[in-house]
Design goal:
Layout: H1 10-16, E1 21-23, E2 28-30, E3 33-35, E4 38-42, H2 53-56, E5 61-69, H3 72-92, H4 96-118, E6 123-134, H5 136-152, E7 156-159, H6 164-171, H7 179-185, E8 187-190, H8 191-197, E9 211-216, E10 221-224, E11 238-241, H9 248-261, E12 265-270, H10 276-281, E13 285-288, H11 323-338, H12 344-360, H13 380-396, H14 404-417, H15 421-424, E14 436-440, H16 449-469, E15 475-480, H17 492-504, E16 509-515, H18 518-521, H19 527-535, E17 539-543, H20 547-557, H21 561-569, E18 574-579, E19 582-587
Parallel strand pairs: 11-16, 11-17, 12-14, 12-15, 13-14, 15-16
Antiparallel strand pairs: 1-2, 2-3, 3-6, 4-6, 4-7, 5-6, 6-8, 9-10, 9-19, 17-18, 18-19
Helix pairs in contact: 3-4, 11-16, 12-14, 13-14, 16-17, 17-19
Amino acid sequence: MKKKKKPENAALLNVIAPMNLDFGHTSMQIGENRAKGYGIIRYATDNPYGWLSRITNLPNSIVSITYEPLDTSEMISIMDSNISAAKKRIIDAKKVSEETRAEKEIRNSRKLLDEIDDKNESIGSISTVVVPLCSEENFDRTDRKAKSTAKKAGCRMRCITNKQKDIYKQVSPAYIPQDGIRDIVGRVTPLSTLLGGFPFSTSGMNDGEGYYFARDDAGSICTLNPWKREGDRTNSNMAFLGGSGAGKSTKMKDMLTDEYMMGSKIIVIDPEDEYKEQCRIFNGNWLNGAGGLNCRINPLQIQQIPKEETDEYYKDEGNGMGALALYLKHLETFFSLYMPSMDDYLLAYLKMLLVDVYKKHSITFETDISGLGNEDYPIIEEVVALAQERAKEFESEGKSGENYYEKLGLLLYDAAFGADAFLFNGYTSIQADSQYICISTSGLTDASDRIKRTQYFNLLTWAWNEISRNRKERVLLVCDEAYLLVDPEIPQSLIFLRNAMKRARKYEAAIWVITQNVVDFLGETVKTYGSEMLDNPTYKVLMGIDGANLEKITQLYHLTEQEISMLEAKRRAHAIFIAGSRRMHVRFEIPDYKFQYFGTAGGR
C-alpha cells in the first residue's frame, strides 16, 4: 500500500528558509547577504596542532568540514600509482619547478605510506568548504580576510565556479554531503592530522600532560602542567587572588594533592591552620612556626639570599661580597622588621655588634660557609650579651652621649630571653625531611604586626634556602595570606619575596601566593615591588572580589567589562585564569573522592 505523503509545514519552512536565494557562477545571494563558495584544494605539508582553528574561526564565514574514511588497501594502491606517476614526471620534466613539485609529492606519499604501514594510521578524504557571508558593502573585506587567512594557514583556496548551489547544500544542515563537491575539493588526509586541526582540540587549555585543572566556559576540559616552560610561560609561579569564601583554599588543596601525586616537594606557610590535616594525611611534617621547638630558625644562620643583578639593595657592584657581607644586608631587613623604631645610628652599632659576634665564631667576610653546621653560628642572646658588655664599658669609661649599646640590649632582650625567644633565639632545629611540610603560624594571630612580619620573613628565608639547595628537585612554596609580609615602612621584605619569585625559574621551583588583600601590595610606598610580585607569576587565578581590591586588579591586569562583571558576581568556583598571554573563564569541578585529602579546616 502506497504511503500517503505528509503535508508540508509551511510555517516551519518560512522560519528556516531564507527570504531569497539566487545562485550565480561564482557567488550567491542568501536573503540580504552576499556569499561566495570556496573549496580548499591544497593543505600545508606540516600541519601544526590546531591548524584548522584559523579557518574555522573566520568571522562572518561558514565553514564545512566533511571527512570520509577510505579503504586502506585501496589507498596503498593509489599511493603506489601516484609515486610511479610522479617519478615519470621527474624524468619528463623540462623545468626545475616541475621536478621539484614531483619530488615533493613523492616524499609526501612515502611519508603517508609509512604512517599507514608502521602506525596503522586511518586514512580518509577531507572536504573543506568556506563560505564568506555578509552584507554587500562589507563583502569585499570579508572575502579578502578569508583568502588571506587560508594562505597564512598554508592552504590554497579556490572559488568553485558553477557549483554555488552545491556549495550551499554542502554547508546547509538540511542536505547530505554533495558528491560533486567531494570530487573537486576532497583530499587524502590521515585521521590524526584532521583531529589535531579541529578547533575543539585547542579550546580551553590542553598541555597534554600534568593534571585536570578546570573546565572552560564552553565546557571543555583544561589540563595543566605548571612546570611546563614554553613561549610566554617562563616560570611556574602562581597568584591566587580573591575575596573570602570564593574557593581559593579549596582549589589550592586540590592542586597540592595533584602536585604531591606528581612527586613535587611542598612547603606551605599556613596562617589559618587550613592545611594541617592534609599535611598529616600525606604523612608530612607539621611544624609550629609560632614557637615550636621543632621549627626554630636561627636568623643569624647565614643562608642563601635571592637577589637580582638590577636590585639596588642587594647589588654587589663588583666588590666580590662574601656570604657574610650579603647576609648582613639581609639582617638589616630582619632587625628593621623586629625593631621598627631603629634609626640609622642604632643600625650602625648593631652591624658592628654582629660582625664581632660572627668573628667570635671564626666567621669573617672571607669565610666559606658551605661546611658549617647549625651550631657553628651565633644566636641572638650572644648579640644581647655583647651589647650589655659594651654598654657597661661605655658607662665605666665615662663617655658622653647616648649609650646605643644599652639601647640595643633593651630592644633585643625580648628576642633573646623574653617571649620572642621561642621564635628567634636558639640554633636552627626545624625538622623538614618529608615531601609535604606545613609550617603553621596561626599561633601568631594575637601577636603584633611586627612579630608576624618578622617571623614570616624568617620562614621565607629558610624556605628559599630549601628551594635553592638542589636545582634538580622540584619544590613548591605556598605563601598563604602573603599580605602579612607587606610593611609600607620596610619594603625590603617585599623585595625579598619578589626576588625569590624571579629567581625560582632558574631552579626547579615555584612560588604560589594567596591573598585577598590586593590593596596592601599596591599601596603608594610598595606598589613598585608589589605590582612586580603579582605580575611576575605566569599563572594568575582571579576569583570573586569587589571594592578597592577589584579596582586594583582591574588596573593591574587590564580586565575587560565582562571580566569585571564576572568577578563582581562572586560565583563560587568560577575564576578568570591567566596563563601567559592567554586568559579564560574557568569553572572548578573537583571530584568527590578528592575531598578526603583536604581535611575539614576551611577550604570546603
